[in-house]
Amino acid sequence: MSGVYISYPFCRQKCSFCNFASDVASDPVKTRYGAALLEEIRAHEWQWSPETVYFGGGTPSLMPPELVAEIMRALPAKCLREATIECAPGTLNRSLLESWTVAGINRVSLGVQSFVAEELKTSGRRHSAEDVEREVDLLRASGIENINLDLIAGLPEQTAASWERSLDWIEHIRPPHVSVYLFEVDEESRLGREFLLGGSRYGAARMPSEDLAAQFYERAVERLEAVSYTRYEISNFARAGHESLHNLKYWKLEPYVGFGLDAHSYDGCERWQNPDSLIEYLSRAPQIRSRTDRGEEHFFVGLRMMSGIEPTQEEWTRFARPIERWTRAGLLERTGSRLRLTADAVLVSNEILAEFVA
Ligand code: SF4
């Protein structure tokens, strides 16, 4: 199993909570980027034929549809099982979806984040709950049934009651896949920076506490599981058979190659990364390469899956100390040859996983 990631780092606006390498750009810049992206893909020496493709961003739904089609044609995708494109709600229409399905796109991930008007407005998003409902209907009518909706717990203005409203919408729309993220307070987003400085712009003074956001996440787990979603990874929930094949590759340490700004690649031994500055990417600055420790990554990445991992004999010995520590604390559990996080461990998983990395 191997995958391809395509980065399209442009958006209509920069959302206050966003910590991705994405921005607003002029049309000529976007055109140059599209040409560089295609050139990079065409120059790649393929060792394998990808089974999954993922257009991420940024907002790849803003890509000219001809560019999506050209990229799909440029991939040696003879046995493609899943081709996902991330979308900002409010950017879809019938003819766009038609061109995507012709190009081979069969899965869409909508960055909804919230269904509540005040939360969306404060975060700089332009869509409404009704837009999402309408676009999901449009996707289904176009034959794209494999749909993910993203939610973020911990946004400004969010309350227990408003979070229930977002979860009500999920139950109403019933997408086969849902991702629930906790807002990450860091220097990389405008909202995170403002909060860390004690300011009030972007609604930073009206964010739920970390504990409350964690309760929102737990409530999402409870409600989603009650309506037949399985949490198969810390942030990802799916109905049977609708897990993201592409994202599973990251957690199972399967190879993938990334194209475009800040795109990462992994061949099973080595990781490499394209420049994260647009100027450097367009001027073809060299990639950054690093060797990996497969044992560490097996735990650090693989334990994110709720089914856990099957450590090798050598790994059981090498990581005996943290395994014993967290098992005693009731945060890891061993079942036969498998090791996995317990339900209590999910909200403190960063701390647990960090212990498997030198
Ligand atoms: S959250 Fe999505 S749409 Fe908003 S700026 Fe970030 S990448 Fe763009």
- At CATH level 3, the topology of the largest domain is TIM Barrel
Number of domains: 2
Give the neighbour order of strands across the main sheet. Answer: 7-8-6-5-4-3-2-1-9
Instruction: Name the overall outline.
Output: globular
Report the CATH superfamily of the largest domain. Aldolase class I
Q: In the CATH hierarchy, what is the class of the largest domain?
A: Alpha Beta
Distance between the termini: 28 Å
- Helix tally equals 14
Give the biggest sheet: 9 strands, mixed
Percent range for helical residues?
Answer: 25-40%
- Quick check: average pLDDT? 96
The CATH architecture category of the largest domain equals Alpha-Beta Barrel
Q: Count of DSSP E strands?
A: 14
Structural class call reads alpha/beta
- Given as residue ranges, the uncertain stretches (5+ residues, pLDDT < 50) are none
Rg to the nearest angstrom? 20 Å
Bound molecules: iron/sulfur cluster
* N-to-C series of helices and strands: EHEHEHEHHEHEHHEEHEEEHEHHHEEH
| Range of strand content | 15-25%
